[in-house]
Amino acid sequence: MLFFSLFTVGVVYILARSLGFGEVGGLGVVGMALIVAGIMNFISYFWSDKIVLGISGAKPIKKSDNPQVYRMVENLGIAAGLPTPKIYIINDTAPNAFATGRDPKHAAIAFTSGILQKLNKQELEGVTAHELSHVGNRDTLVMTVVSVLVGTIALLADWFMRSLWFGGHDDRDNRGNTIFLIIAIVVAILAPIIATLIQLAVSRKRELLADASGVLLTRYPSGLANALVKISSDREPLEVANRGTAHLYIVNPLKGQQAIGWFAGLFNTHPPIEMRIKALREMEGKI
């Protein structure tokens, strides 16, 4: 996170400096960009869960609506030392689930109706423990902050290119400024890509951690492993999912869009499903 924050600051400095905003007269523009970023961060911190749940079409349920699911989440939450999160249902037959919320007290877990129908009790417990681990590990907050930083970098890069196009840069004719401007153009093009790669790498790492942490709750690796097999082999796409929310789900909901190969794998939201299942199988008999 510290590296990502410093990376963002560096991008801001290079882009602003290349346009001559390092001087006092330009501080207002840079300050405005940082204020916008701060507002985005504030909104994401306090309302990102509501935004994501709304986009996903998730509806809250009470204990009386589905006592079995509510009791399962409640019991696993107690085992994890976490307050019971709010439970939501997404009316979609594609099996999947995700967790959101800035901290355990404001957490929510959303299940699709398909996952409740297609998985057995032990598999559902494995999925629930995985999502509770995201909450306990503060992954939901980490990914929210990372997403905001990625969005900020993309916004600033776009602002820089527009400023160039409309002549918002300093035209002083000297070699130093020209070289710096070229560097800034390269940064504006590459920074959003690099930021996205960092976001995806963080997402993949947190998924593996949640798999391992979830198994420590259920003490049954096969439950989650079998759930991953069923979810990944189900070819029905999740209609409400999009590229902006795909990283939240336990398995990439955008069916058929998982890249193959070392380089292509850098753009995946999740680790290879085979890797995750293998790691879980290797845990069997060791817990």
Q: Please give the number of β-strands.
A: 4
Distance between the termini: 31 Å
**Neighbour order of strands in the largest sheet:** 1-2-4-3
Strand content: 5-15%
Count of structural domains: 1
Written as H for each helix and E for each strand, in order along the chain, the element string is HHEHEEEHHHHHHH
Q: How would you sum up the global shape?
A: elongated
Question: How many DSSP helices?
Answer: 10
- Helicity range: 55-70%
Structure classification: mainly alpha
The averaged pLDDT comes out at 83
For the largest beta-sheet, the strand count, sense and barrel status come to: 4 strands, mixed
Using only CA atoms, what is the Rg? 22 Å
Low-confidence stretches: none
Protein model, in words:
The chain is mainly α. It is elongated. The relative contact order is 0.14. It has one domain (2-283). The chain contains ten helices and four strands, in the order H-H-E-H-E-E-E-H-H-H-H-H-H-H. The chain has a four-stranded mixed beta sheet, sandwiched between helices. Strand 3 and strand 4 form a beta hairpin.
Quick structural gist:
63% of the residues lie in helices and 6% in strands. With 287 residues, it is mainly α. The chain has one domain (2-283).
What are the key terms here?
287 residues; mainly alpha; 4-stranded mixed beta sheet; 10 helices; 4 strands; elongated
Topology diagram in text:
Elements: H1 2-18, H2 27-55, E1 58-60, H3 67-80, E2 86-90, E3 97-100, E4 108-112, H4 113-118, H5 121-136, H6 139-165, H7 175-218, H8 221-233, H9 262-265, H10 273-283
Parallel strand pairs: 2-4
Antiparallel strand pairs: 1-2, 3-4
